Amino acid sequence: MSSSLLSSLLWTSSCAVILLCVYVYKTFGYWKRRGIVYDTPNFLVGNLGFLMRRSFFDYCLELKDKHPREYVGIFLGMQPALMVQTPELARNILTKDFDHFQNRNSFSNQSDPLGALNLFTVKNPIWREVRHELSPMFTGHRLKFVTELMNQNAKELVKKVQRDYVDKKKKVNLKELFSMYTSDTVAYTVFGIRVSVLSDQESPLWHITRNMVHFTFWRGFEFTMIFLVPVVAAFMRLKFFSETATEYIKKLFWNVASQRKDTRSAADKDLVNHLLQLKDNLKLPHAASDLSDKIMLAQAGVFILGSVETSSTTLSYALHELAYHPEEQEALYEEVTQALAKTESGVLQYQDLMDMKYLSACMYETLRKHPPVPYLDRLCNKTYKLNDEVTVEKGVPVFINVMAIHHNEKIYPEPKQWKPERFINVSDGDNLNYTFIPFGDGPRFCIGKRYGMMQVRAALAQIVQHFKLEPNEPYEVRTDPYSVLLAPYGGGTVKFVPR
């Protein structure tokens, strides 16, 4: 290589390095120039250097302790973002000033229709249309019907616990066990398929959901980029669902839809029926001919993921806490016993479960201490004045630190303690002035919230009715670093003792 060519390469490389350093320096000075306290970033990765080693759940909690203030600047890679940490600001972002924050920050691209068009990620105006059409799926009347199925599946859950973890003395993986339970329920809720993987039957849904239980490094990386660094997800063309899961959902959906083509009636109450109606009702301007089909499939996919992940996590942590709190466990057992004594059928139906205040309190306190989603994200779609000192520019993500609010010592004294009495007499829809937001709030709150909580109630009541729970691992459970949502590392475990 000639000296002149070598000199040219060195000069070009030096200029590139200098320009990169200038760009990084300017980007990481974003919050400093605005006089906002920020979490010190690292080169290129910003504040995300912990990823795949620790969970975002842990980071949100640590950020609250490190910067105990109303808001703090962070960097998602090279993207500046604002993390707000008070109920008042949460209310403004989620509800009061929703017109400034209509969409989520997560990656949404037509190259991944199931990932881009589901109710969680889809942008306005399609989001509003889909939300309106799906709302009837989650009425109280519909939920009463589904509760009967949840109770049946909870009975199978009890049988499996007795068969595998009492009689055979296997060590239980709670996350996997409850993913089986929720998978059985969602199989009927979405596709009208009555099947029980809990009783070792072949389940078409379990082929999809079992892969959601075990987050590998790669799936964890994919989800993390989709939710936190969408520019990387776009560049790498990452997928919300794996290719295998996507094809399986398509095949299953269209098989069921084909069977309904000539027989569809008002008797079909599952999500497939609602989605077929949604296709007929959607008014999509300038839509491609297959856009409605993609929207239908996307809703089926995200409902499966959301129903399985959040409920299985909440049940896993609820049993863990009850195992370490025998007095609270006994109080819950007494409430279940008394409620059962009042029923003629010996089964706790929808209203029976809703009326059990201590059961609800145990569930709410678990959701407070261990919210499955530790943060809520919104993308600023037009310049927004947060207060007299801070203006959020269009395109800047704003995150609500749910952990900071749920673990605020002024709101919840001794926040690391699990105390169900905090939530006695709290109703399902009460966000306690935005101090309790495990399902989000405002127009984009989780549409399946009541469904998920009833799923937890039905399983928790029958588990406590039949078994005493004893600890089988240390109280402080490590969180899964690969999971973008909260999950106990190794799935979590307890010891079941028949009553």
TrEMBL record:
Keyword Ligase: no
GO cellular component terms, A-Z: endoplasmic reticulum membrane
Record membrane topology: Peripheral membrane protein
Keywords linked to the UniProt accession: Endoplasmic reticulum, Heme, Iron, Membrane, Metal-binding, Microsome, Monooxygenase, Oxidoreductase, Transmembrane, Transmembrane helix
Binding site residues for heme: C446
Transmembrane regions: 6-25, 217-236
Cofactor(s) for this UniProt protein: heme
InterPro entries xref list: Cyt_P450, Cyt_P450_CS, Cyt_P450_E_grp-I, Cyt_P450_sf, Insect_CytP450_Detox
PANTHER family: CYTOCHROME P450, CYTOCHROME P450 6G1-RELATED
Name of protein: unspecific monooxygenase
